[in-house]
Amino acid sequence: MTGYVLTAMVAYFIGSIPTGYLFGRARGIDIRTSGSGNIGATNVFRTLGRSAGIAVLLIDALKGFLPTRYLLFGATPETREFHSMVAALFAILGHNYTCWLRFKGGKGVATSGGVLAALVPWAFLITLATWLLVIWLSRYVSLGSLVAATVLPVATYFTQSFTQSNRALLALTAVIGLLVIWRHRANFQRLRAGTESKLGAPRNPDPPAPAVNP
């Protein structure tokens, strides 16, 4: 039990590193007051530019991948997979609810992607392809994330054999998908209202100047 607790704690603190916030601070910007106010890669991309957005995306993904793959305190061959699942869940929770920013973090897409690459690579590839396809067709990053989160447990179901640990893995991927959907609930409302920003479009374009009567 001590090994599981230690794994969970270290995974949480690794996941809680507020990458996007730190990148913004390095440029004198509080990312929480810019764009959507989110510290994730999409808002960093819009606010700080492509290179910063890509860097945050990769680092956030590593925050999920590395703990899931390597944080195995006290694990035995029989419990290794369960240790990985504990690390995976707490790395995502750390990113979503970082203790360094009053438990207000990102939406967990990149960190979840890193977790899935370590745990279920085939399901990850299917989910990633779905995410990219929806974004390419719609230009909405949030819609891609919502659809990919829905596809994730289905992809896991069809790419895993039915062992005890894999049933737990299926449950975990369902929880990960629900966390992503929950964190995107405001985006969902904006999508329904038609006010969500598309990829590549300015988030708050300046209104047209009023006409001046001659």
Outline the structure in words:
By secondary structure, the protein is mainly α. The protein has one domain. It has helices at residues 2-15, 19-26, 41-48, 50-70, 80-96, 109-119, 121-138, 141-159, 164-183, 185-193. Helix 1 (2-15) runs parallel beside helix 5 (80-96) and helix 8 (141-159) runs antiparallel to helix 9 (164-183). The longest helix has 21 residues, at 50-70. The N and C termini lie far apart (79 Å).
List keywords for this structure.
214 residues, 68% helix, globular, disordered C terminus
Dominant shape = globular
Structural class, from secondary structure content?
A: mainly alpha
The whole-angstrom Rg is 19 Å
Q: Distance between the terminal alpha carbons, to the nearest Å?
A: 79 Å
Q: What fraction strand?
A: under 5%
User: Which stretches of 5+ consecutive residues score pLDDT under 50?
Assistant: 204-214
Assign a percent range to the helix content.
55-70%
Biggest sheet record? none
Count of runs of 4 or more consecutive helical residues: 10
Order of helices and strands: HHHHHHHHHH
Tell me the number of structural domains.
1
The chain-level mean pLDDT equals 90
The total count of strands amounts to 0
